[in-house]
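Page 37, continued from 36.
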């Protein structure tokens, strides 16, 4: 197996038994960053070679042939899993336009951590991290922080991402916020929420449906027919003291319909990049000395993902019981939030200083279609059938028209496609009618079995 190039010879040793060896150039970068980190002075009880930090980080950068093949195989498996789940998964591919860092808060001897997917040792963005950034972008769009809302309102945020009782636009400034600028920002978010309610920029039908799905019995009784009152109470409630009655926002529990998968990264030119922080005035900040230009900066080297690297993002709907407009339009909303996050927020750390910017790859902005196994710009035959099922009248009227679609579902070769089709079929029928049919006919028992076989993955 060919060896990956190493920037410079390194005098350090890995803290592993001698029989493991010392040449780790063909191992994935995450393994070299962790277990096989060659940064220790073997002759001094494995003391960290702090003066060799630059060489240590440079040695971690190459992504050899084995790791490259591992990354590509993982990306293929992820795409195949998405195809199995059919049209309930959206795929977006992107290319980085600036350096990106992920996992800097992970503890590591070199001070700056980096997120590698275990057990493979390949770089990635955790799905929870992606979801957090896209949620913030969606909230900004919904509350009017940008000129265009791109179809978002706050009810759509709750349906898709879940209800967060601790969101700043609900709590405003709290006692835990000691810094004045943080308190001002929280109050600004709260005022945006109030303004959206006053100007009618919240879908009251979506709020009413959300109350029915997510609220407790007492809240439903009080606000089922008064969604505007529900919003006003959320906007006016303040943080409460301990032992006082729980505010309305803490009686809402809903995790949201979307699941964000981990984002795999294929580094440009088969290597990670090395970046540097060069902090000045260390004596002033750390030792209490007077600031002076004569102080010596202490360079800090760390790993980044270089511009031009490829990223895959998968978003899955794991709860299909969405309002009709969201069930049909969630893909466009999510893509709009991704675009805003890529351009203005950045993914990973240091977004405020320009890191983590990405650009969508046009040819990859498509839904992963079920059954066909390929990506296409227009709707596939499978998606066309699903659209026809969704267009059927619900309840008893659909019973006379559903039989051809049941035959089509049973004939599908892909289990994921059968599951999606069965769910859509059952959504337009009376459950009691289906239950009666299942007692009489095997084909309906199969449809129920397909619909129950639902798996989830991600964050």
């Amino acid at each position: 197996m060919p060896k990956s190039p190493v920037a410079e010879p390194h005098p350090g040793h890995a803290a592993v038994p001698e029989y493991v060896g010392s040449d780790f150039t063909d191992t994935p970068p995450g393994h070299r960053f962790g277990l096989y980190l060659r940064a220790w002075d073997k002759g001094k009880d494995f003391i960290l070679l702090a003066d060799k930090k630059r060489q240590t980080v440079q040695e971690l950068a190459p992504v050899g042939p084995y790791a490259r093949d591992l990354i590509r195989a993982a990306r293929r498996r992820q795409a195949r899993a998405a195809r199995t789940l059919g049209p309930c998964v959206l795929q977006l591919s992107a290319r980085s336009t600036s350096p990106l860092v992920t996992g800097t808060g992970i503890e590591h001897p070199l001070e700056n951590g980096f997120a590698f997917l275990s057990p493979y040792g390949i770089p990635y963005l955790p799905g929870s991290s992606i979801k957090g950034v896209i949620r913030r972008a969606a909230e900004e769009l919904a509350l009017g922080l940008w000129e265009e809302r791109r179809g978002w309102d706050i009810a759509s945020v709750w349906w898709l991402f879940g209800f967060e009782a601790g969101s700043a636009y609900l709590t405003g400034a709290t006692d835990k916020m000691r810094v004045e600028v943080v308190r001002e920002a929280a109050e600004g978010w709260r005022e945006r929420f109030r303004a959206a309610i006053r100007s009618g920029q919240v879908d009251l039908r979506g709020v009413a449906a959300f109350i029915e799905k997510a609220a407790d019995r007492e809240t439903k009784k009080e606000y089922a027919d008064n969604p505007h009152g529900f919003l006003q109470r959320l906007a006016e409630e303040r943080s409460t003291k301990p032992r006082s009655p729980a505010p309305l926002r803490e009686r809402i529990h809903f995790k949201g319909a979307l699941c964000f998968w981990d984002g795999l990264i294929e580094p440009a030119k088969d290597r990670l990049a090395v970046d540097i922080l060069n902090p000045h005035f260390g004596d002033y900040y750390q030792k209490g000395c007077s600031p002076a230009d004569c102080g010596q900066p202490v360079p800090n080297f760390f790993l980044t993902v270089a511009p031009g690297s490829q990223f895959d993002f998968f978003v899955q709907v794991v709860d299909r019981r969405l309002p009709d407009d969201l069930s049909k339009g969630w893909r466009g909303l999510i893509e709009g939030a991704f675009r805003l996050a890529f351009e203005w927020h950045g993914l990973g750390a240091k977004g405020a200083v320009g890191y983590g910017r990405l650009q969508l790859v046009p040819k990859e902005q498509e839904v992963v279609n079920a059954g066909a196994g390929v990506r296409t710009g227009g709707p596939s035959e499978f998606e066309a059938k699903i659209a026809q099922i969704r267009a059927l009248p619900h309840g008893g009227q659909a019973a006379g028209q559903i039989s051809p679609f049941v035959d089509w579902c049973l004939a599908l070769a892909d289990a994921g496609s059968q599951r999606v089709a069965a769910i859509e079929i059952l959504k337009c029928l009376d459950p009691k009618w289906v239950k009666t049919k299942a007692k009489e006919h095997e084909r309906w028992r199969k449809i129920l079995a397909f619909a129950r076989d639902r798996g989830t993955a991600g964050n």
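The CA atoms of residues 8 and 358 lie 31 Å apart. Flag for discussion at group meeting. The radius of gyration is 26 Å.
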